[in-house]
Amino acid sequence: MSTILIVDDDDQLRRSFRKLLTEEGYTVESAASGEAAVQKVQKQAPDLVILDMRLPGQSGIESFRVIHGFEPKLPIIIMTAYGTTENAIEATKLGAFDYVLKPFEVPAMLTVIAQALEAGRFMRSPVDMGGGPDPASREAIIGRSRPMQEVYKAIGRVSPTDATVLIRGASGTGKELVARAIYTHSLRAERPFQVINCVAIPESLLESELFGYERGAFTGAAHRRLGKIEQANGGTVFLDEIGDMP
Predict the structure, then answer these.
(1) Residue-wise pLDDT tens digits, 1-47
(2) Are 8 and 14 in contact (CB under 8 A)?
(3) Please, which residues bridge with residue 76 across strands?
(4) Crossing angle of helices 85-94/60-70, nearest 10°?
(5) Structural domain tally of the chain?
(6) Residue 86 to residues 52, 81, 91, 194: CA-CA distances in angstroms?
(7) What pLDDT digit, counting tens, does each position of 185-215 carry?
(8) Do 16 and 118 belong together in one domain?
(9) Range of 114's domain?
């Protein structure tokens, strides 16, 4: 069960957050100031911090710098009103997971929270790919640098969604590993993961490989053949080298 620390000087907001997140199955801690938040992070090691920019005493941006300084892999979501977006954007550039504007929509906030927690798991243990049904999904993504943490954040953002994802990078940089990581941590992880090498299949056969064909559809089609998309059956299809597809 993930622990979330809410940092805001608004008592009503903290109570509302506690009720909402508890009902969602999270453990919730709260703090009314930046100083108290720093102490709680040091003592209780939460999995996520939701931090307001306007705080009494130590400001939100100052509190972010302190927490991020000793816990760089701890995801932090910044909350801000319209008048303080500049600091929120600055915090995001410095490493905050994301920022949300007040007042926010509950479903959107819950989505960001789920994405941040997923990204946090990658940032803290990036070599742990989990135990998906495909043994290849257990291969490790290696790297703990700042740029790699941004990759883990991106994986965390898209894993809980049904979005179509374009993964770009030079040959050998691990695009398939990223695709498998997204799959392993998605709601489709128990379904198949199908890989199609788009440049290894002749143009004339690509449609049949993707979509299959029925018996008698053309000369030589003696039996029905399922395409990769149908074989995925609610899982994930990874189109490798799609940029070089005929």
Answers:
(1) 899 999 999 999 999 999 999 999 999 999 999 999 999 999 999 99
(2) yes
(3) 49
(4) 10
(5) 2
(6) 13, 10, 9, 43
(7) 888 888 999 888 888 888 777 788 888 878 7
(8) yes
(9) 3-124
